[in-house]
Q: What sequence folds into this?
């Protein structure tokens, strides 16, 4: 049941409301213009989010050198996003833009011509970019626009728009080139992800399909036995189906006025379910503002087209009170979504959010929570996230921190490196919640700094915390163009070894037990053997000092360059892809994990390249678990920094509210100090 006419009335009404918000406000949907909402204003043009933030930083510092993080949040509200887009593009002209450069010496139009069928007009944006030291008047379709000296302005146009600068006409016919029409029929035998590209990488889509592009700027859509109108000229067709499949490609030149059948089936690289492992994305938004509106039909198509076993569609707010997809959660909480089957489970979950303390995913909730967020629109940062965790836990959720850390740092970095300034969604309450057993996992695989998050994850393991590694892309079906977040859900996955049939409950239980690894694509196995048998992630061996175990990691995937075996003390062994094995004689309690890395690769949609990381096999000694003093002290230092940050930057109204945060931190300190003993 994905047809919109068959949806519950409350869900249909919510989708209509979102379309009205998009029409009225554009891609921000009227949200409070905090920094990441301002980035949404630019996301259809500046696909590299880092370039956006660096450009904003430069604009802010040009206005106010030495601005603090708090002032940055205030000043970014005042920036002219048209000028930010112009400067972030740095001379690049994306496929949905034509740049009209107005210089002291004249006017020039920069554009890559787009093919249109049967002379149809093309919609685009005209970037008016002036380097003159006086304002410039531009007439477009009867409206007058004034571009400030050295300024920029983006104006929606079509290829038939009438444009004049200082009343001198500027034709836009270079925006398009006419091409004769043909049709393609695409067939794989099962739902897949398709890409059809023409000259200059121009994408072609079936009627009604959102015009999505991924982090590599490749157009894509999902389904099987699909028909689409295309130009009768050379095209490249590619097909894949998520990370367990390779990519097949074919060049085709369809004949004008005819339908050309392309039968193309991707080859499997590995079959996780056949081994009892199922891959999930714990953090996907159907709607979260954006340049389109996500629907259950879109979610069904992408889950089956990516062969994503578990899809957690989270209801959450952006920067105000509205919780997107709350109505869907209220209707389907505790039940599989209608397109679920024996190997694909979809659920509505929650993203619990506070920009100072961090964001959490919750999967498997039996009912909606009473609270989804704190600290927005000037409201207080209270209660601590711990209260949200307890409520969601009581509703049956498995949960963990999402997109935890944003700035890379290495294994030897002090705790202060993880406590970057500003209300930037970093997982600052994580170290307390992990000590107190309030969270089950950490999204080591995310769209921010995987490397930094992996460092913190291993610190927490070394300090005795029991957390599974998970993955959450934060993909958003309501964005067709937003870098990583318009990439298909499941471009990173947590694989969990499930006991028995796949269900929401069995998958959640596997995460709680730590039987997981997370990956951008590579298959990664970890095995520890001793005379008693073979063990994998989530298992605990109780050994005696001096016992020896054999540790093995195995990888599959063309993007892997290096595989590591790591313990609490660092790298145990390292080697090329395939298999890495080492002997480990145990002294103090420790853990073992496997890590696979690789450079940028078409299969890896994370800007940092390929990455996979397992949950640990714990090696206890004489009944004692790992509590490496250096890692415990790192966590205590982190809690000291967290206390300072809450005292200085928390929005709190009463001493009691502050005391609740401090009580939580003190409780976590007591746990870590007990491990030093």
A:
């Amino acid at each position: 049941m994905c047809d919109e006419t068959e949806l519950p009335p409350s869900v249909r009404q919510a989708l209509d409301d979102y379309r009205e918000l998009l029409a009225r406000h554009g891609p921000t949907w009227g949200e409070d213009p905090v920094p990441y909402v301002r980035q949404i204003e630019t996301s259809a043009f500046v696909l590299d989010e880092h370039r956006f933030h660096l450009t904003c930083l430069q604009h802010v510092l040009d206005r106010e050198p030495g601005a603090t993080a708090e002032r940055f949040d205030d000043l970014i509200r005042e920036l002219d996003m048209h000028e930010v887009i112009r400067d972030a593009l740095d001379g690049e002209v994306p496929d949905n833009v034509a740049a009209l450069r107005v210089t002291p010496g004249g006017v020039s139009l920069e554009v890559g011509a787009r093919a249109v069928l049967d002379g149809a007009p093309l919609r685009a944006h005209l970037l008016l970019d002036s380097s003159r030291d006086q304002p410039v008047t531009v007439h477009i379709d009867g409206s007058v626009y004034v571009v400030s000296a050295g300024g920029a302005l983006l104006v929606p146009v079509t290829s038939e728009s009438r444009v004049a600068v200082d009343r001198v006409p500027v034709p836009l016919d270079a925006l398009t080139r006419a091409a004769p029409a043909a049709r393609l029929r695409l067939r794989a035998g099962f739902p897949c992800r398709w890409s059809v590209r023409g000259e200059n990488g121009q994408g072609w889509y079936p009627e009604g399909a959102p015009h999505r592009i991924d982090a590599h700027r490749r157009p894509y859509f999902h389904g099987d036995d699909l028909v689409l109108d295309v130009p009768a000229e050379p095209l490249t067709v590619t097909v894949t189906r998520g990370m367990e499949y390779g990519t097949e490609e074919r060049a085709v030149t369809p004949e004008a006025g005819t339908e050309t059948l392309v039968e193309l089936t991707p080859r499997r690289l590995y079959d996780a379910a056949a081994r009892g492992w199922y891959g999930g994305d714990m953090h996907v938004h159907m709607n979260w503002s954006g340049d389109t509106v996500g629907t259950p039909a879109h979610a069904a198509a992408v889950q089956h087209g990516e062969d994503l076993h578990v899809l957690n569609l989270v209801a959450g707010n952006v920067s105000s009170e509205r919780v997107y997809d709350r109505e869907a959660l209220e209707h389907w909480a505790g039940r599989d979504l209608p397109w679920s089957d024996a190997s694909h489970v979809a659920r509505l979950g929650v993203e619990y959010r506070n920009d100072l303390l961090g964001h959490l995913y919750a999967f498997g909730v039996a009912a909606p929570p009473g609270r989804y967020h704190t600290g927005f629109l000037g409201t207080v940062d209270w209660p601590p996230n711990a209260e949200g965790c307890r409520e969601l836990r009581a509703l049956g959720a498995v949960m963990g921190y999402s997109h935890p850390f944003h700035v890379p740092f290495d294994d030897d970095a002090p705790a202060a490196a993880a406590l970057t300034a500003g209300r930037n969604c970093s997982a600052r309450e994580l170290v307390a919640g992990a000590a107190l057993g309030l969270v089950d996992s950490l999204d080591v695989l995310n769209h921010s700094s995987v490397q930094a998050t992996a460092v913190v994850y291993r610190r927490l393991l070394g300090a005795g915390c029991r957390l599974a590694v998970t993955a959450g892309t934060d993909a958003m079906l309501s964005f067709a163009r937003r870098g990583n977040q318009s990439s298909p859900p499941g471009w990173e996955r947590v694989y969990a070894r499930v006991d028995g049939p796949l269900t929401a409950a069995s998958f959640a239980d596997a995460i709680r037990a730590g039987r997981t690894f997370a990956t951008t694509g590579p298959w990664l196995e970890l095995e520890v053997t001793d005379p008693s048998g073979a063990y994998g992630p989530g298992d605990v061996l109780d050994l005696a000092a001096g016992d020896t175990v054999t540790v093995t990691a195995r990888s599959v995937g063309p993007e892997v360059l290096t595989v590591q075996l790591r313990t609490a003390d660092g790298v145990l062994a390292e080697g090329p892809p395939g298999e890495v094995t080492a002997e480990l004689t145990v002294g103090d309690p420790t853990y073992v994990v496997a890590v696979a890395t690789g450079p940028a690769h078409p299969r890896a949609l994370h800007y940092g390249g390929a990455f996979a990381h397992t949950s640990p096999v714990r090696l206890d000694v004489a009944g004692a678990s790992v509590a490496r003093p250096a890692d415990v002290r790192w966590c205590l230092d982190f809690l000291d920094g967290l206390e300072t940050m809450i005292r200085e930057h928390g929005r709190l109204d009463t001493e009691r509210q502050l005391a609740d945060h401090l009580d939580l931190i003190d409780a976590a300190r007591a746990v870590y100090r007990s491990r030093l003993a």
Summary: The radius of gyration is 26 Å. The mean pLDDT is 96. The domain at 96-179 is CATH 2.60.40 (Immunoglobulin-like).
